[in-house]
């Protein structure tokens, strides 16, 4: 089995986290330990090297598999549930205690449950 990195999905996740943290791309590069030019190349859908890929998924706090697709597969593999993606990001924050993290997860879970129910009704 061979696979490849879904560069677009990775870049979009990085951009979402960058915006949520109100950071510049240069700040993201510095924190992640990659060059700003790597992020610029990724914007144009150039794949990062392995070390860059590892550094970026670690900065995101998400599993590398979230950004991989089997070779020749046209469709991107289904994304994990939002709550599964959100939980590691929330746990990585030191400015929320355990009770606050649990409270936020309850809010996110309830919101996602409502969104899914609304989508089923359409």
UniProtKB/TrEMBL annotation:
Organism of derivation: Amycolatopsis rhabdoformis
Annotated InterPro entries: Cro/C1-type_HTH, Lambda_DNA-bd_dom_sf
Name this protein carries in UniProt: Helix-turn-helix transcriptional regulator
